[in-house]
Each structure stands twice: as structure tokens, then as C-alpha cells.
């Protein structure tokens, strides 16, 4: 595979697409030359109760950092996702639900979704939830998770969805951080035939959250659960008590829509805050153009609503566009490795959006499970969450897409609200492994370590030079952290935390995080979070965590652990620590490899030299750099000698 392989745009795709190559350049140039005019026009794609007259008001100056879009307009996100489509699409399918069990699926029309969201919104109101209150959603991948988000949006409550794979402790921290007093959950989730005890986890979390007074519980499995009288309410019972008439709350464009916690370089996840108008304009517009969405498509994004991809590209973008969006409860390899493609055939999916880690895992099973399905309905494939290696890209293209479907490799982040760098199917020649070009209105800027702008073909740190409507507005409750994290390293730019290369054609190749965030199976994990979980164990004195290349997960978690004096390393202790981290954070944070480290490489001032730890984990000793500044250089030799092998 050489970098020069280019897959030309398929003329048939271009002909039916929203934009072709010339169209892309024209629109892109307009969007950069006059953002006010461009977004003033495209801002009208959603319904405004009161139209905006101001388009953009942004300052990236640290002492006056603010980001406002369409600030005098009013609208409602749930209205845009549901009510607006009733006149023409009441009986069209809004959501196809495909359960973990292949026998369990159903279609939910726009009319049905509207009615249920109105009822749920009335339940929230009846329970005292008001505009601006924070509602925590800890749900399996069922349509009710989307209904819960939309019900919050309808009444102006701010939702905070917590991924169902997070532990009770992680859930509690997120509830406390945003001072949420209402939780929506289910008795149990089901994934790959296994039950996930969501209600039991919630009960445990709430021991640490005295502020929560109500828990609304969806009956998903009917399994045995604990019940707190006066606090816990059944979803189906409460919905039956209220009317389905719930007028949407008129929200200002800059009123918060949701908080979503994401990992950063410190131990504490940050509450990324997105607002109403700009977010919806951006999510719906990218969904339309990047996936070249047309009426009649069946669109499937395999993410979980617990991540931003689920927010923007399962729920808000597709529904704002009146699309049919598929909600999948299960996993790629249950009942077997053919599941994704069976679902594609069963529901005639035309647009399919998944993560490289899933592709790599399925690739390992060979072509058989794919080839024995038809996949004729597919016309477009997407990738998100981490760099896709060219080998996986080619397999996705050839085996899954029968060389017929373009692949959109979409680069973006929780913070960006929507896709920033991506091919457009009718416009962009593809290079396997490259996210290609910026979306409309996105101005990538490459800088070196000192912040110097790099021109032409180059490698450096990726920043974005100006705002776009879907950008996060602040870190909930900690605006200073927002300023520090994203706008202080390189003045007047948004710093993404990613490294990238730009080639001579102006294509971007994301190389991965340049901060202490790692990307495990497309899930963002702060190394500091795993470290603080480890050192919270009584036998651990010190821990340092880095990422290392992992065939399936992209990156694996490599932990160096120093035990407290008197404790002996053992395999049993290793297992105990893995289990400990799972219960502290969640299974996605399980260390893949733990190395016992009698000492960690530190500078004389006591700073851990992670660069060296990363090299050792990567098994790359060629370039350890200068170790002479270490307090005890012998530590490094010991670590090299006892490096753990990849499993
Ligand atoms: C990485 C997920 C390469 C990147 C939407 C980013 C990618 C982080 C891609 C954000 C891609 C996401 N190519 N890297 N197509 N998409 N990333 O917040 O490192 O969960 O900073 O948002 O994932 O992860 P997050």
C-alpha cells in the first residue's frame, strides 16, 4: 500500500450526490471567505421559532473567550427532530430498533416517536424537572434512550448521557459534577447475550449522590432489581398517567442542550457543553452532506448513545433530517461474526457508519461471514473514532462494500459536536487512511511545537483557526479549564490535541493524540484516569499508564505499577488490579498489560518521563532520547528487561 493510491470519485455517486468536486471547492471557499453569509444561509436549514438576525459572535481571546452562534434566534431541538416532520412523514419510520436478540426488532414511526417523547416530557415535568435542570441518562441502546434525550430537549432540561459500560463510581462522579437530581435508566441492558445490571449500578452510584430524588426505570428485561419506594418510578406506569400533549419549550440558540463527559489529560473527565441552535445546524448539515443522506435511505450508525457519535449521528443529525435511523442494541459478533451484515440485509441499510476497531475485529474472522450476506442495499460506508489503517480500509472497501461504496473517514471529537475533516462521497477522491479535507467552514491550521504556522505539506499539531456552529461552548462549571485546555497552548486557535500530517494535495492524515489521552477501541481514555484508579488500590504506591499499538483496539492500555513496600508481585495481584480498574471506571479502562516497576523514570525534579515509558511499551528502544537527566538512569534498563509482551 503506497500513499499514492487514490480512489477516484465514482461518477454515478457524484451525479446523485448533494455536491460534486467543483461544488465542494466553491462552497468551501465561500464558507471560509464569508462565514457570516455562509452560516446565515445554512442556519435556516432548521426551524426557528424566532429567526436569528445575528450569525456569529466569537472571541478566542483567553480573557474574553466566548462562542455564540445565531444568538438571538429561538428554536426547539425536539420540535425540529419530530414535530416538523409530522405533516409529511407521520407514518414513515423514524427509528428501526434491532435488539440484541436477532428475533427482536421493530419500526417506530415519526408519529409514534413524537407521541412517546411528548408523554415522557410530561412525566419529567410532572416530577418537577424544569428548564435548565440536569437529567442523567444511563440507558442501554434502545429507542427509549433517544426518547429520553428528546424529552429533555423538548422541555429545555439539559441531558447528560452516561455510557452504560461505566461503573457505579464513574456514574456517581458525573451525576455529582453537574448536580443532576434525576436519573433515567433501565432494569438491565442486554449485549451479546449478557445482562448489564444498570439499575443495580445506579443504586450503588446513588449511595454517593444524595441530590438525586427520582429515578425513572425502563423495564427492558424484567430481571430482579432493587426498588426504593418514593424514589424509583416505572417508565411504563408514569407514561400511562400523562397526556401526549406537550408544547415544545422555546429555547434560545445558546441555551444548553447537553453535557457529555469526556476524558482529558487530567484524572477528572470534563463536562463538554453543547448548546441548541448551532449544534443542531451543524449536526444535521454534516449528516446530510457527509453521508449524502437522501429520503429513502436507511441509515445505521453502530455507536452507542453514550458517546458523541451516538448523540450527533444516531439521534440529532438524522432525526433533524427526517431520516430513518437504526438503533442497535447488540455487538458485532453476536450471535456470530456475520451479525452486522445480516442486519444490513434485514433492514436494507444503505448507509453504514462504524469504528475501525470493529472492522479490524471482523477482519480477523475472515471474509466468509461477510461474503455469505448480500449487502446489495449498501451504497456508502463510514468510519469514525480513531485512525483507520489502510489495511482495514481496503478490506472494508473490498469485502464489505464490494468495491462499490465510497468510505467516508470522518475525523472529529466530542468537543467539535460534528464532523470536521472528511471526504464527501460525490466530491472527494479517497486515499485509504486519510480523513482527507475539511468540511465547509472548517479552517485547519497546522502548527509546530512552538506554535509556528506550517504551510503546505507538513507534519505537526492540528488546530482549527476559527469557530463553527457545532463547537462546544464551555466545560460545564469550569470555564477556566475550557480556556486552558483548548485555547492557551496556541493563541487564537482551537487546539485539538491531535497530531496530523498534511500532504501535497492538502489531505489530512490524523496521526493520533499528542496529549495524555489514548484511544482504546475508539473510546477516549485519559491515562491519568487509569492511573488514579490504580493508585487508589491499597497495594499500589505509584502507577504510570501509556498507550501501545494493539492489533484490534488500535491502542491498548499499558500500566507500569510500583507496589507499596512489602507487597509481592504475583499473577493473582495482576488480575486483582485489572478487576479493580474495571470496577473503578468500567470495562473499557481495563489495562491490557501490567508491568511491575520497582521504579519509574523520573527527572531530578520528580516528573515522570512518559516519553520513555511509551517507547518501552511500544518495544522501540532505538530512540529513547537523553536519559542522562534522569534521577536514576538504571531504572530504564530494568524496565526494558522486564517489558511485558503483547497478548
Ligand atoms: C480520534 C469521537 C483519526 C482523534 C468522534 C480525536 C480519529 C478523538 C478519527 C476524539 C478519525 C476520531 N481518524 N482519529 N476519523 N475520529 N479520532 O471525543 O484522536 O470520542 O481527537 O470523538 O478520536 O474522540 P471522541
Automatic annotation (TrEMBL):
<keyword id="KW-0479">Metal-binding</keyword>
<feature type="binding site">
    <location>
        <position position="524"/>
    </location>
    <ligand>
        <name>ATP</name>
    </ligand>
</feature>
<feature type="binding site">
    <location>
        <position position="540"/>
    </location>
    <ligand>
        <name>Mg(2+)</name>
    </ligand>
</feature>
<feature type="binding site">
    <location>
        <begin position="385"/>
        <end position="387"/>
    </location>
    <ligand>
        <name>ATP</name>
    </ligand>
</feature>
<dbReference type="InterPro" id="IPR042099">
    <property type="entry name" value="ANL_N_sf"/>
</dbReference>
<feature type="modified residue" description="N6-acetyllysine">
    <location>
        <position position="607"/>
    </location>
</feature>
<feature type="domain" description="Acetyl-coenzyme A synthetase N-terminal">
    <location>
        <begin position="24"/>
        <end position="81"/>
    </location>
</feature>
<keyword id="KW-0436">Ligase</keyword>
<comment type="similarity">
    <text>Belongs to the ATP-dependent AMP-binding enzyme family.</text>
</comment>
<dbReference type="Pfam" id="PF16177">
    <property type="entry name" value="ACAS_N"/>
</dbReference>
<dbReference type="InterPro" id="IPR032387">
    <property type="entry name" value="ACAS_N"/>
</dbReference>
<feature type="binding site">
    <location>
        <position position="309"/>
    </location>
    <ligand>
        <name>CoA</name>
    </ligand>
</feature>
<keyword id="KW-0007">Acetylation</keyword>
<feature type="binding site">
    <location>
        <position position="535"/>
    </location>
    <ligand>
        <name>Mg(2+)</name>
    </ligand>
</feature>
<dbReference type="InterPro" id="IPR025110">
    <property type="entry name" value="AMP-bd_C"/>
</dbReference>
<dbReference type="GO" id="GO:0019427">
    <property type="term" value="P:acetyl-CoA biosynthetic process from acetate"/>
</dbReference>
<dbReference type="GO" id="GO:0046872">
    <property type="term" value="F:metal ion binding"/>
</dbReference>
<keyword id="KW-0460">Magnesium</keyword>
<dbReference type="GO" id="GO:0005524">
    <property type="term" value="F:ATP binding"/>
</dbReference>
<dbReference type="InterPro" id="IPR000873">
    <property type="entry name" value="AMP-dep_synth/lig_dom"/>
</dbReference>
<dbReference type="GO" id="GO:0003987">
    <property type="term" value="F:acetate-CoA ligase activity"/>
</dbReference>
<feature type="binding site">
    <location>
        <begin position="409"/>
        <end position="414"/>
    </location>
    <ligand>
        <name>ATP</name>
    </ligand>
</feature>
<dbReference type="GO" id="GO:0016208">
    <property type="term" value="F:AMP binding"/>
</dbReference>
<dbReference type="InterPro" id="IPR045851">
    <property type="entry name" value="AMP-bd_C_sf"/>
</dbReference>
<protein>
    <recommendedName>
        <fullName>Acetyl-coenzyme A synthetase</fullName>
        <ecNumber>6.2.1.1</ecNumber>
    </recommendedName>
</protein>
<dbReference type="Pfam" id="PF13193">
    <property type="entry name" value="AMP-binding_C"/>
</dbReference>
<feature type="binding site">
    <location>
        <position position="513"/>
    </location>
    <ligand>
        <name>ATP</name>
    </ligand>
</feature>
<feature type="binding site">
    <location>
        <position position="521"/>
    </location>
    <ligand>
        <name>CoA</name>
    </ligand>
</feature>
<dbReference type="InterPro" id="IPR011904">
    <property type="entry name" value="Ac_CoA_lig"/>
</dbReference>
<dbReference type="InterPro" id="IPR020845">
    <property type="entry name" value="AMP-binding_CS"/>
</dbReference>
<comment type="function">
    <text>Catalyzes the conversion of acetate into acetyl-CoA (AcCoA), an essential intermediate at the junction of anabolic and catabolic pathways. AcsA undergoes a two-step reaction. In the first half reaction, AcsA combines acetate with ATP to form acetyl-adenylate (AcAMP) intermediate. In the second half reaction, it can then transfer the acetyl group from AcAMP to the sulfhydryl group of CoA, forming the product AcCoA.</text>
</comment>
<feature type="domain" description="AMP-binding enzyme C-terminal">
    <location>
        <begin position="529"/>
        <end position="607"/>
    </location>
</feature>
<dbReference type="GO" id="GO:0005829">
    <property type="term" value="C:cytosol"/>
</dbReference>
<feature type="binding site">
    <location>
        <position position="537"/>
    </location>
    <ligand>
        <name>Mg(2+)</name>
    </ligand>
</feature>
<feature type="binding site">
    <location>
        <position position="582"/>
    </location>
    <ligand>
        <name>CoA</name>
    </ligand>
</feature>
<feature type="binding site">
    <location>
        <position position="498"/>
    </location>
    <ligand>
        <name>ATP</name>
    </ligand>
</feature>
<keyword id="KW-0067">ATP-binding</keyword>
<dbReference type="Pfam" id="PF00501">
    <property type="entry name" value="AMP-binding"/>
</dbReference>
<feature type="binding site">
    <location>
        <position position="333"/>
    </location>
    <ligand>
        <name>CoA</name>
    </ligand>
</feature>
<feature type="binding site">
    <location>
        <begin position="191"/>
        <end position="194"/>
    </location>
    <ligand>
        <name>CoA</name>
    </ligand>
</feature>
<keyword id="KW-0547">Nucleotide-binding</keyword>
<feature type="domain" description="AMP-dependent synthetase/ligase">
    <location>
        <begin position="83"/>
        <end position="467"/>
    </location>
</feature>
Amino acid at each position: 500500500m503506497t500513499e499514492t493510491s487514490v480512489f477516484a470519485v465514482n461518477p454515478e455517486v457524484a451525479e446523485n450526490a448533494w455536491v460534486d468536486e467543483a461544488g465542494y471547492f466553491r462552497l468551501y471557499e465561500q464558507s471560509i471567505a464569508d462565514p457570516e453569509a455562509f452560516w446565515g444561509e445554512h442556519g435556516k436549514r432548521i426551524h426557528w421559532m424566532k429567526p436569528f438576525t445575528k450569525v456569529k459572535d466569537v472571541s478566542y481571546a483567553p480573557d474574553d473567550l466566548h462562542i455564540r452562534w445565531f444568538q438571538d434566534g429561538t428554536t426547539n431541538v425536539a420540535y425540529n427532530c419530530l414535530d416538523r416532520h409530522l405533516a409529511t412523514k407521520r407514518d414513515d419510520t423514524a427509528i428501526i430498533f434491532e435488539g440484541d436478540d436477532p428475533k427482536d426488532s421493530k419500526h417506530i414511526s415519526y408519529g409514534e416517536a413524537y407521541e412517546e417523547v411528548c408523554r415522557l416530557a410530561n412525566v419529567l415535568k410532572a416530577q418537577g424537572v424544569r428548564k435548565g435542570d440536569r437529567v442523567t441518562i444511563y440507558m442501554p441502546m434502545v429507542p427509549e434512550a433517544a426518547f429520553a434525550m428528546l424529552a429533555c430537549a423538548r422541555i429545555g432540561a439539559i441531558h447528560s448521557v452516561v455510557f452504560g459500560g461505566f461503573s457505579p463510581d464513574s456514574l456517581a462522579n458525573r451525576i455529582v459534577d453537574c448536580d443532576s437530581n434525576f436519573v433515567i435508566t433501565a432494569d438491565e441492558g442486554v449485549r451479546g447475550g449478557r445482562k448489564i445490571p444498570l439499575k443495580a449500578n445506579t443504586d450503588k452510584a446513588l449511595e454517593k449522590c444524595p441530590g438525586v430524588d427520582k429515578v425513572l426505570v425502563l423495564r427492558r428485561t424484567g430481571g430482579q432489581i432493587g426498588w426504593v419506594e418514593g424514589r424509583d418510578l416505572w417508565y411504563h406506569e408514569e407514561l400511562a398517567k400523562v397526556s401526549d400533549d406537550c408544547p415544545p419549550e422555546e429555547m434560545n440558540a445558546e441555551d444548553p442542550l447537553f453535557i457529555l463527559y469526556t476524558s482529558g489529560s487530567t484524572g477528572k473527565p470534563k463536562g463538554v457543553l453543547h448548546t441548541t441552535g448551532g449544534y443542531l445546524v451543524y449536526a444535521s448539515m454534516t449528516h446530510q452532506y457527509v453521508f449524502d443522506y437522501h429520503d429513502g435511505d436507511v441509515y445505521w450508525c453502530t455507536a452507542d448513545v453514550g458517546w458523541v457519535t451516538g448523540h450527533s449521528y444516531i439521534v440529532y443529525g438524522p432525526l433533524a433530517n427526517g431520516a430513518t435511523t437504526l438503533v442497535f442494541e447488540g455487538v458485532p459478533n453476536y450471535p456470530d461474526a456475520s451479525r452486522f451484515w445480516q442486519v444490513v440485509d434485514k433492514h436494507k441499510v444503505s448507509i453504514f457508519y462504524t469504528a475501525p476497531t470493529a472492522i479490524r475485529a471482523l477482519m480477523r474472522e475472515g471474509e466468509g461471514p461477510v461474503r455469505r450476506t448480500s449487502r446489495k442495499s449498501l451504497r456508502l460506508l463510514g468510519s469514525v473514532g480513531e485512525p483507520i489503517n489502510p489495511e482495514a480500509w481496503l478490506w472494508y472497501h473490498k469485502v464489505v462494500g464490494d468495491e462499490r461504496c465510497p468510505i467516508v473517514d470522518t475525523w472529529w471529537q466530542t468537543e467539535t459536536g460534528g464532523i470536521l475533516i472528511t471526504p464527501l462521497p460525490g466530491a472527494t477522491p479517497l486515499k485509504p487512511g486519510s480523513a482527507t479535507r475539511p468540511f465547509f467552514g472548517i479552517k485547519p491550521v497546522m502548527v509546530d511545537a512552538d506554535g509556528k504556522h506550517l504551510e503546505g505539506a507538513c507534519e505537526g499539531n492540528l488546530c482549527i483557526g476559527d469557530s463553527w456552529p457545532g463547537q462546544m461552548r464551555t466545560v460545564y462549571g469550569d470555564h477556566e479549564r475550557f480556556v486552558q485546555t483548548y485555547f492557551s497552548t496556541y493563541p487564537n486557535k482551537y487546539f485539538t490535541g491531535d497530531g496530523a500530517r498534511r500532504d501535497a494535495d492538502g489531505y489530512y492524515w490524523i496521526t493520533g493524540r499528542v496529549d495524555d489521552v489514548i484511544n482504546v477501541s475508539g473510546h477516549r481514555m485519559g491515562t491519568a484516569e487509569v492511573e488514579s484508579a490504580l493508585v487508589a488500590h491499597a497495594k499500589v504506591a505509584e502507577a504510570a499508564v501509556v498507550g501501545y499499538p494493539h492489533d484490534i483496539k488500535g491502542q491498548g492500555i499499558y500500566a507500569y505499577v510500583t507496589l507499596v513496600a512489602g507487597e509481592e508481585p504475583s499473577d493473582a495481584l495482576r488480575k486483582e488490579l485489572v478487576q479493580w480498574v474495571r470496577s473503578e471506571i468500567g470495562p473499557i479502562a481495563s489495562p491490557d498489560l501490567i508491568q511491575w516497576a520497582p521504579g519509574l523514570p523520573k527527572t531530578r525534579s520528580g516528573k515522570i518521563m512518559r516519553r520513555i515509558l511509551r517507547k518501552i511499551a511500544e518495544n522501540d528502544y532505538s530512540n529513547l532520547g537523553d536519559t542522562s537527566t534522569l534521577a536514576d538512569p538504571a531504572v530504564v534498563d530494568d524496565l526494558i528487561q522486564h517489558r511485558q509482551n503483547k497478548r
